Amino acid sequence: MSDFLKLVGEQLRMIRIAKGLSQDEVAEKTGKLGFSKGRLSNIENGQSNITLTTLENLMKALEIAPDELFNFQKLSNVADIEEKSLMLNIHHSLLRDRDLNEVKYVVRVTKEFLDTMDAQVKKNSTK
């Protein structure tokens, strides 16, 4: 598939993960449209050509605006996507066999860290 589909798919995945949602939860939020976990996986991996209607429904399920979806400043090319995907897979494998409480702790600390970084960026951009 095209680089654009990979970018959109990765952006959808990043937003879903940032919101703490599983693919099943997003599928459920699409309601009667009945997106399956497999279809969402194909979209996130850039392996599915989607319509604008499908994209709109996914944005509604994720509760995001178009400008949030199409902000590709953090992902400039396919190599970035592939490297990021590799890093996420490594992170996943590190946590897979850990106790649930340990995983929750890592998620909480990571979220706090990212919130702090985002606040700093916002603070610096208003100067």
TrEMBL record:
It comes from the Bacteria. The keyword Zinc does not apply. Gene3D superfamilies: lambda repressor-like DNA-binding domains (1.10.260.40). One of its GO terms (molecular function) is DNA-binding transcription factor activity. CDD domains: HTH_XRE. The keyword Nucleus does not apply. InterPro entries: Cro/C1-type_HTH, Lambda_DNA-bd_dom_sf, TransReg_Diox_bact_type. GO terms for cellular component: cytosol. Residues 12-69 form the HTH cro/C1-type domain. Keywords: DNA-binding. PANTHER family: DNA-BINDING PHAGE PROTEIN (PTHR46797:SF24), HTH-TYPE TRANSCRIPTIONAL REGULATOR (PTHR46797). This is Helix-turn-helix transcriptional regulator. It comes from Metasolibacillus meyeri. The lineage of its organism: Bacteria, Bacillati, Bacillota, Bacilli, Bacillales.
